[in-house]
Design brief:
- The chain is α+β, with helices and mostly antiparallel strands and about 110 residues long.
- The protein has 2 domains: about 35 residues; about 60 residues, no CATH class.
- The protein has 2 helices and 4 strands, in the order αβββαβ.
- It has a two-stranded antiparallel ribbon with strand order 1-2.
């Protein structure tokens, strides 16, 4: 029995569809894993001391035992601001904002 071009075209289409679904599923699996568990990296060299602020390192523990690390810069005007970085960021990424608030006398956590 001779196979026609139509048969081979359909077979190719089914195979292509299967690999497309496999690729999309693998991509979704990998990216969702990266969103749930971002890569950990140490906070390196930048601190609030770089712009002349006195600070202390603080650690807060959540109810489920996860540690949150940050810096506390004391206030000179009696007001304070809490800065939170985005997903996958770290406290060093908030230093530019901390510098602005500190220059206006705000305390920063």
């Amino acid at each position: 029995m001779k196979k026609t071009w139509r048969y081979w075209g359909k077979l190719f289409g089914v195979g292509l569809g299967f690999f497309y679904i496999l690729f999309v599923g693998a991509y979704a699996w990998i990216t969702s894993g990266m969103m749930i568990s971002p890569s950990r990296h140490p906070v390196c060299c930048d601190t609030p001391a770089d712009f002349g602020a006195e600070f202390e390192t603080v650690t807060l523990q959540t109810k489920d035992g996860f540690n949150l690390y940050g810096w506390h810069i004391p206030s000179t005007n009696g007001a304070a601001v809490i800065l939170l970085h985005g997903y996958g960021g770290d406290r060093a990424s908030m230093l530019a904002y901390a510098k602005i608030f500190h220059s206006h006398g705000y305390g920063v956590l």
